[in-house]
Design a protein that fits this description.
Strand order of the largest sheet: 1-2-3-4-7-8-9-10
Distance between the termini: 11 Å
Shape: globular
Radius of gyration: 19 Å
Number of strands: 10
Strand content: 15-25%
Structural class: alpha/beta
Order of helices and strands: EHEHEHEHEEEHEHEHEH
């Protein structure tokens, strides 16, 4: 499968002050998908402007025509499947079926306590995630759902007329552990990883590459164990969180070399961050645009 190139546009700019233009420019540059983070606030951006993912994507859908749109990633930290399903069906309608839901278990960042709860343990995050994904799948594929689970419930929840995309909009499941990989194999149309976080500070790019090879191998094994052909899933690497950091965006040649290695490894989509000045995602905008326009053509 040929490699796709996508981007993440962080929702930190007012729509009238660069927000809108980033999304329209992303489509002009030919990105396959433009994603945004689904957080209430995030890391060093916490004390600055930060806008909601679903309204931002709805606005982006109204000013683009071809490019897919999505979240990387939505989590149970502050979402409920019933209300999220209604918003996603609406967004899928506005975009005429161009939405992908990136979905993950969440972490211990600001979102984990913003609603006043104590941070969930890793076990509880995994338990909630499993129930969250299963119920969301049901809500997006059935007109009416009644469900009572350990964490979530729904009583005659209506989602008519359903998604434009059938049977529902695609899930891109972020996972590296056994339980998450089983969810990706069962419910995912794509699988997402950022690499091994333990290697970010002290690891080498080669160690990271081998860790990602191992993750892909586990995905294939998990799919086989559940009767799913792993070739049916897109394999998505959200870049910027491996020891390579921003180096692949320093030049067109550097990115082509980086992308070629991961294409050979088996990834089908690479996601690069839209440049954010004075941040971990700082990059030269002219080089970024050159990569968007020419890199895939050089990979062949």
């Amino acid at each position: 499968m040929s490699l796709r190139l996508s981007t993440v546009i962080l929702p930190y700019r007012r729509w009238s002050e660069g927000g809108r233009s980033a999304w329209t420019r992303a489509e002009e540059l030919g990105f396959h998908t433009a994603y945004t983070y689904d957080h209430l606030s995030w890391r060093s951006f916490r004390d600055g402007p930060w806008f909601g993912a679903i309204p931002t994507l709805t606005a982006a859908a109204s000013v683009t025509d071809r490019m897919r749109l999505g979240t990387l990633v939505t989590s149970p930290n502050f979402r409920h499947p019933v209300t999220l399903a209604k918003e996603l069906i609406s967004l899928d309608d506005v975009s005429d079926g161009r939405v992908t839901l990136g979905i993950g278990a969440g972490g211990t960042g600001f979102d984990a306590t913003a609603l006043g709860q104590e941070p969930w343990t890793p076990r509880e995050r995994a338990d909630r995630f499993a129930e969250f994904v299963a119920l969301l799948d049901q809500l997006l594929t059935e007109d009416a759902v009644t469900y009572q689970g350990g964490f979530y419930s729904a009583t005659e929840a209506r989602n008519i007329p359903g998604c434009v995309q059938r049977p529902r909009l695609p899930f891109a499941v972020a996972a590296t552990g056994p339980r998450g990989l089983r969810l990706a194999a069962r419910y995912g149309q794509a699988w997402v990883t950022t690499g091994d976080p333990k290697l970010y500070e002290t690891g080498t790019p080669e160690q990271s590459f081998e860790a990602l090879r191992g993750q892909l191998g586990k995905l294939v094994e998990t799919c086989a164990a559940t009767g799913r052909d792993a070739a049916e899933l897109d394999k998505v690497l959200l870049t910027g969180f491996t020891p390579d950091r921003g180096r692949p965006l320093e030049s067109l040649d550097a990115f082509v070399d980086f992308a070629g290695r991961y294409q050979e490894l088996g990834f089908t989509e690479l996601v690069i961050h839209w440049p954010v000045p004075d941040s971990m995602f700082a990059a030269e905008e002219k080089v970024f645009e050159l990569i968007a326009m020419e890199a895939l053509g050089q990979l062949g």
